[in-house]
Amino acid sequence: MNAAAPIIRSLEQYHGKYGGYPPDLDALVPEFMDAIPKAPFGTRVWEYDRATKEGESEAYRITLRRSHGWYARFIYDSGRASWSYDS
């Protein structure tokens, strides 16, 4: 998912500067990016949440989902540095 690359890069820059991930994507603007890029595929939206479990290193998840229902989701997991598909 190349469309998320600027978001992932900005999250990692934020983490490098502040030692943790932001509470939401809006915290990246304007210091790390001019604006959150629009999600591809028209009716899809970005969702972001910190996905850290107790005893694990800090991680986050970026989900690309339809704005009107869940349907298929593409999920980036920073702990694994990989995308998965959830239908």
Structure in words:
This protein has 87 residues and is of the alpha+beta class. It has one domain (2-86). The protein is 16% helix and 28% strand. It has one helix and four strands. Strands 1-2-3-4 form a four-stranded antiparallel beta sheet, with no helix packed on it. The protein is globular. The model has no long low-confidence stretch (mean pLDDT 79).
Brief synopsis:
The protein has one helix at 5-18; strands at 44-50, 60-66, 73-77, 82-86.
List keywords for this structure.
single chain; alpha+beta; 87 residues; globular; 28% strand; 1 helix
The radius of gyration over CA amounts to 13 Å
- In terms of structural class, how would the helical and strand content be classed? alpha+beta
Total beta strand runs? 4
**Number of separate structural domains:** 1
Strand content bin: 25-35%
Q: Quickly count the helices.
A: 1
Mean pLDDT: 79
Shape designation: globular
Distance N terminus to C terminus? 16 Å
Uncertain runs are none
How are the strands ordered across the major sheet? 1-2-3-4
Main sheet? Answer: 4 strands, antiparallel
Oligomer category: single chain
Give the helix proportion (percent range).
10-25%
Element order: H for helix, E for strand: HEEEE
